[in-house]
Amino acid sequence: MFFRQLLAFVFLVASTSRACSAEAERCELLVYGATPGGIAAALAAADDGSQVILIEPTSRIGGLITCGLSHTDFHSFEGLTGSYLQFAQLIERHYRQIYGEGSQQVRDSFRGTFAEPQVNLKIFSDLIAERPRIRLLTSHRLDTVQIKRSGTLTHLESVSFLDHKMKTVTFRPEMVIDGTYEGDLMAKAGVPWRTGREGRKEYDEPLAPETADQQLQAYNFRFIMTKSPANRLPPQAPEGYRRNDFLPVLAILRSGKIKKIFDYPSGCLFKAQTPPLPNGKYDINDVSRGLVRLSLPGQNLDWPNGDERTRQRIFKEHLRDQLGLLYFLQTDDDVPARFRDEAREWGMCRDEFKDTNGLPPQLYVREARRMIGLRIFTEHDSSAATDDARAILHMDSIASGEYGNNCHGTAHEGERFGGKHTGEFYKPVPPYQIPYGTIVPKSCSNLLVPVAVSATHVGFCALRLEPIWMSLGQAAGHAAHQARTSKKLVQSIDVPRLQERLHTAGSATIYFSDAPPDHVMFREAQWWGTVGGFHGRAPKNAKPGQRGKNLHGQYFEAYPHHAADLDRVLDPELATRWIKLAGSLKIETDRLPAADGSITHGTWIAAAYAKRGTVDRK
């Protein structure tokens, strides 16, 4: 025991000395991790006036949106707001400018939510380059941090990185945002975190297992593939390829249960997401509840807290399995001819990921560390409120989501091919709000964590979507600027002021089916909805998480019973309830318009908005 303590002390002294040996550069905001959430945070803070240093440990920014996950996960277009919606609009504009208004590429971009990885990378790069307040550093990996303690509070004093030449670069930031999928900086700063699954009784979550365990949602690659002969790049055998690993798949192919190698959404080995991406490309994913899975539960357990060598090992293991399966299906003579011929029609894209032979340079890390913060998001937070079509109200909401709790599995029973994932669930829910406390540590006064957020395993499975992470990142960026300029702890910023800034920037804190960010009353509707004005207007749907008419696959028209109806005449019964709510917000109700048969919802809300005061929503 003494020897281990001595070694730990020597390592701490060495780490501190190395950090101190490099001359520290002061900065206003440091964002580590140029994932979509990290980029959104940097953009928001820069737009507010903060000088931002955005640091990415790899050579490629954009996280999974530029590394294969190009078929965006959402259900309703009305749920896309803020930084992600602006990003999607720029994607669509790019395809219009290059290919023309009525082009197939514009149609295939699905309003800008589907794009080639190289286009996603271009738009992210352009957004950063357009903001001189953002300084981007790539290939800088986190090394050490220095922390100052004051009572129960901690403060990040300095953060050091190693560049690609192993040279130490140190910053002394006023504010810090951890935008990594793994929460690496958060963990280095000593912020409490958790992996694995909570037991059912811990938070009374129906989807949780009976007892807590260390199971972790599985990872896989999101290959970008094409059938276009001019752009098709045949896969090569991965390092360590072993033919015998894939022989058991032959029995499954001969069983008749698999119809095609590539298809959507089931009865196949590789899920080729449809509609396709522009220019004949497909985002390839794991087949949910399939006989053959790309996701490999159990083989990623060391990833969240692993060092670079550990993560590279896991990366290669997943690549050997998933690329190896594809290579086997295309080249092995024992594969039935009709399956082998079909598989050969597909290949990686010559014009994507050129440095890695068409292969995505990042693994799809669906879940890693989860912060234990001021507020822990659970399954209940995305559930319907009592006798209400809407989800539970959060007056301190900083973002909204609508995808639902979604887990590709945390363990596997039986053989690699033909067995069954366990811990898998896909729960439809109404659109939900996300409280500010989910991105805030309990005691670190100048750190925000919008990606490895504070949530249970089940709760996190409703938040782990890139559009939601971008909304949370945007909120973190605005919050960091407010905390810095007002000289407040992140735990005590003015949340209503943050919400107002988000609404001004077109970012929703509650879902509406008929009041998008470009609506003239978006801010007013968002404010009134976030304080509870639209809860209790429609009873709970008979079908939990009921969606609108199906558009295609997982995409639907707007959720029913979630309209603001701003042009609708205000009836006396609703007016009575709204006046009571306004009074609780210390608004002078005697000056609000009466429901005389001519006043609309929008007119009344606008009047209340104009007279609003400071609301304590903590």
In short:
With 618 residues, the chain is an alpha/beta fold.
Key words describing this protein structure:
alpha/beta, 7-stranded mixed beta sheet, 6-stranded mixed beta sheet, 16 helices, 21 strands, disordered N terminus, disordered C terminus
Q: Mind explaining what this structure looks like?
A:
The two termini are 44 Å apart. It is built from 16 helices and 21 strands. The longest helix is centred in the middle third of the chain and has 24 residues, at 308-331. It has 618 residues and is an alpha/beta fold. It is globular. The chain has helices at residues 2-21, 36-48, 82-99, 104-108, 117-129, 184-188, 200-203, 249-254, 308-331, 337-344, 457-460, 466-486, 495-504, 522-530, 572-584, 601-610, and strands at 24-32, 52-55, 134-137, 141-150, 153-162, 168-178, 193-194, 224-226, 232-233, 262-263, 270-272, 281-285, 347-349, 370-371, 397-401, 405-413, 420-427, 432-435, 447-448, 550-552, 555-556. Strands 1, 2, 3, 4, 5, 6 and 19 form a seven-stranded mixed sheet that branches. A six-stranded mixed sheet has the order 9-13-8-12-11-10. A hairpin with a 6-residue loop joins strand 16 and strand 17. Helices cover 30% and strands 17% of the residues.
